[in-house]
Model the fold of this input.
Amino acid sequence: MNDFIAGLPKCELHLHIEGTLEPELRFELAARNGVTLPYADVAQMRAAYAFDDLPSFLRVYYEAMNVLRTEPDFYDLAMGYLRRAAEQNVRYAEIFFDPQAHTSRGVPFDVVIRGLRRALLDAETTLGVRAQLIMCFLRDFQAEYAMATLLSSLPYREWIAGVGLDSDEKGNPPAKFAAVYERARREGYLLTMHCDVDQDNATEHIRQAIEDIGVDRIDHGVNALEDLTLVEAIRDRGIGLTVCPISNRYVTGSTKTEQIRRMLDLGLRVTINSDDPAYFLGYVSENLALVAEELELTREEVVRLERNAFEIAWLPRHVKNRYLAELDGHLARA
Ligand code: ADE
Ligand code: ZN
Done:
């Protein structure tokens, strides 16, 4: 099965580019930018990556990205991820970035997006990996800051496929960002948002995301299974779910693979993704392998997870069809 997964053409839809900052690159960027880190080596740095819930993870995540300062830094971050993605036969990725995690520390929006964009263009020609950007708002900041970020993104509208919402969900419901999402939709952005696992008011947040915001996709969202009306709404509207089992194990104590099984059985468009792989120690192949093992999936079921991902990807039909044909070819050869 692991060989089958290694060769499978893959689609990654839930990946925070800042969550791919591996310790080695963090050291390199710190040296480049004259930032002093309180660790002697990678082992010490990794030992400080101690978290057991979302807030404790986010503290580590935001602290680490302080080394990202210049356009080449963002280029190297994205290129590093895309190289690893290519090694795992990721054919297409939709990549989250958190501009406010940088603009709030004085790094201009322009610096962030130009570096990321240049890496995406180079990766397509040199690695054959296609990718698009999704701009996330930080939900623990004010809605006005999200709106200002949305407006500052408009000169780069063609470089961004859609918007998302991440960071700490507690006390920060989707409704807080209704006006921001309304404007984003009018600007032509596609819409997704995190509905993180086992949050307070999780099902009410999912309801708001679907009914009040009108999202095209939901990131995580496994608590939808607790409410049949949500399951029906997700199925009727064809909303995809980007689930991240290794991440869930770190922040909730459970891989939630039983919920993935139920989503498959209910015919929901569930997909498997890696979230913040430099911290959760698993890229998309490791996440797929974990689900395949825990659920004893057949090859056909693994292909179905990947088919779901290409189906809900924000790509034109003819492009999806090319990737779906690659998937069929892999299954036929297996
Ligand atoms: N930002 C980066 N990773 C995140 C996660 N797993 N949940 C919410 N916000 C995030
Ligand atoms: Zn995430």
Q: What stands out?
A: The pocket of zinc ion (ligand 2) is lined by residues 14, 16, 166, 194, 219, 275 (CB under 6 Å). The beta strands are 10-12, 90-97, 130-138, 160-166, 190-195, 217-220, 240-243, 269-272. The chain has one domain: 2-333.
